[in-house]
Amino acid sequence: MPHVAPIRPVFGEPVTWRLLIKRFRSSTNRWLAFRQLSRHLLRALWARAIRVSRPFRGIGREFRVQLGMAVKYPLGWMRSTQQVVERWDAPDRPLGKDVVLFVHFDAEGRVIPATRDFIMSLEAAGLSVVFVTNSGRILDEDKAFLRAHCATILIRRNIGYDFGAWRDGLDTMQLPRPATRAIYMVNDSVYGPFGDLSDVLAGVDFGQADLWGLTESWQHRYHLQSFFLICGEGAIRSRAWRQFWRSVRPVPSKEWIIRHCEIGFTRALVRGGIRPAALYPQSALLDDVEIRRLEAVLAEGQRQHGGNERLQAQATHAYRLLRAAQLGKQDLNPSIDLWRQLLRAGYPFVKRELLLANPSKVADVFDWETVVSHSLRADPTALAQQIRLSLGDRLPVVWNSPTDEPYHAKVDRR
Fold this sequence. Notes:
The chain has helices at about 15-25, 30-70, 115-125, 140-150, 160-175, 195-200, 235, 240-245, 255-270, 280-285, 290-305, 310-325, 335, 340-345, 350-355, 370-375, 380-390, 395-400; strands at about 85-90, 100-105, 130-135, 150-155, 180-185, 190, 210-215, 215, 225, 230, 275-280, 350. By secondary structure, it is of the alpha/beta class. The strands form 3 sheets. It has an 8-stranded mixed β-sheet with strand order 1-4-3-2-5-10-7-11, with helices on both faces. Strands 6-12 form a two-stranded antiparallel ribbon. A two-stranded antiparallel sheet has the order 8-9. Helix 4 links the parallel strand 3 (about 130-135) and strand 4.
């Protein structure tokens, strides 16, 4: 891990007890100084209480999670793993050697323009697309598009999340087949690709590793993030592969899916001797050069404290990443927290959750259009307008938009 110098928050010089006592003694308004001193004492006591209680709160949360998974796990054995209600196979488009199991969900059964672009990019890269939807239905006009670009369409009930859909797809299509060379497990949780997907996939080398992901994470435990996984012959014909997929059940617990399936998939294959690798490893995203750039952004934000909203937001997120780097990167979700670093490295996607909800309050997400344009030479204007219409009045909060133009611009609703 690169060396990270000690850092301070963006919020100016810290207030110390010595400074407060000095202000109290020299103040002509002792009552105001006493109020400041009391407020600082209460904040210090509250911060200490939070620090002391944090381990106990963590234990309590973990107990509730484990209890919830234990209660719901038997339900996964009471439901069938086969939930396909409709299947269509292209009469003139047989499966090739490289197969994509593309998992989709839309409550209204739509295939939105961004998902259409994604599917066409996969097809253009020479991959056979098996479209697996958890929506239970697909609108007729969207079926017509899928039939023009997919080898197979599987419509299934929304049971088992993505891994339930992938298992159902593998079983239904009897994959891997004798001629299968690679299986791509992909879902629609990202926008993109912004650019030629073939350029990205050219970095996959099955001589180096049998299991590839776009990004890797150390949250909970090391794993490849599951929205885009590439499994070579060494993986798909292994005993570990067969054992893992037999263990996947439609347990109605998202936490179980995350721990047993998303994290467990990488770990199960690694235990079986399969080598994993990421096309955009975290060590390359937070190397010495990037750490120095983040430190420069933070320093500039401290110098211009309170002046430039855009710069302050970038400095706030830089501080967060530097703190995570100091602590060993355990708390980062690369596809969300390192969105800027990924795009600058040529990664062609943006996580949908980041732009539609921003659950971890990434401070500088408003800048994504500029970064996509500059780093990937792509035009995200049409996509950005669709997202603005979708978010409506929530846009400034989700994107943390500065009040100056163009980041706080009004949406054209015509």
